């Protein structure tokens, strides 16, 4: 393989530096490294981390991204030991992408031949009604994930590619599938069913599945500890506000409702997705504006949301535009906040009693304006944000409500890779 071209100012990391991790390269100590793979149609994101030692905000031991698989020129970016390495060459398929990534990791002292990987965790987008829990991957599990392709035609095939390739390259290590939908399996029928003709819905798997489940579960599991209450006593709302965004209502550790639906297009306004719209808009655009179904899919998934209204989807840019008094940016922000507040209200009623509201993901963890505006003026509902706590720079789990707020408000950093790694190692140890 070609020698990797390192990025400007970066020197290949001395092997000993990366190898100074306990349990790596023969250094004594017990390591529990997991490889986490998130395979898309033309990309693979991966991390190697020790889920027993890592925190949500700690850097993984290794992280990487394979991009432009199947295009004339591909690219692998690897971060390890504080250094960044870039390899550019054609990557015909996922198998070659993973093989090249492993070679690159090995060259820098942090690959599967040097680091003992205990388990491989695979993010799988759609588990349908078949999967409520992570599963050790067998041929039968792969077949079941394949059966779900009609529900996630873009995502599940790529996830299966990643699983098959990784199982071939690392055949002696347990592989675990963690489903984005799994946490929402517990939703009661009243929340999971749409009022769509029952026969058509059943024949076509039309129901609410929910997504971002790994994140909502991971974040919500930390809240009882912050409250000093047992999980079964806690009713909570979690707000995963990243580029994709979703809210979840959780009672005693079980999800009872969520904003994403049969697909991740539903619910909150997102970076580029519309969130909930009148479904009649789709018929109108098809019949009257002459748009094809693929055009409308692209419109609602990639050209709508905050970006569709303002031109940008990154909240840092949106804030800068608002400060420059850009009217479109201001309007986009208000539409986003309005929809978010509506769902917070809906979930307070759905739960009846709420102990905590928690913000997470890129926007939720970092944008104090969004947090303040989402909960402004709700003192009558027992929600009182503390402006100083909300504005204080901090990247750990923290309370941002006042001491006398009946509903506690938290920021809890999410880390889906860490959650997947924990499951992978946990299931591998049980085997
Ligand atoms: P993804 O959904 O892609 O996993 P993330 O959870 O990483 O996304 O969130 C990415 C988004 O977080 C960015 O598009 C940006 O809008 C927002 N974001 C990241 N950092 C900040 C920040 N410091 N202030 C405001 N927004 C931020």
Automatic annotation (TrEMBL):
Keywords: ATP-binding, Cytoplasm, Kinase, Magnesium, Metal-binding, Nucleotide-binding, Transferase. Mg(2+) binds at residues 38, 416. Pathway: Metabolic intermediate biosynthesis; acetyl-CoA biosynthesis; acetyl-CoA from acetate: step 1/2. One of its GO terms (biological process) is acetate metabolic process. Mg(2+). Can also accept Mn(2+). Residues 1-13 have a biased composition (Polar residues). It catalyses: acetate + ATP = acetyl phosphate + ADP. PROSITE patterns: ACETATE_KINASE_1, ACETATE_KINASE_2. Its EC number is 2.7.2.1. It comes from the Bacteria. Residues 15-24 have a biased composition (Low complexity). InterPro entries: Ac/propionate_kinase, Aliphatic_acid_kin_short-chain, Aliphatic_acid_kinase_CS, ATPase_NBD. It is found in: Cytoplasm. The record marks 212, 273 as: Transition state stabilizer. ATP binds at residues 45, 240-244, 314-316, 362-366. SUPFAM superfamilies: Actin-like ATPase domain. Homodimer. Catalyzes the formation of acetyl phosphate from acetate and ATP. Can also catalyze the reverse reaction. Belongs to the acetokinase family. This is Acetate kinase. It comes from Corynebacterium spheniscorum. The gene is ackA.
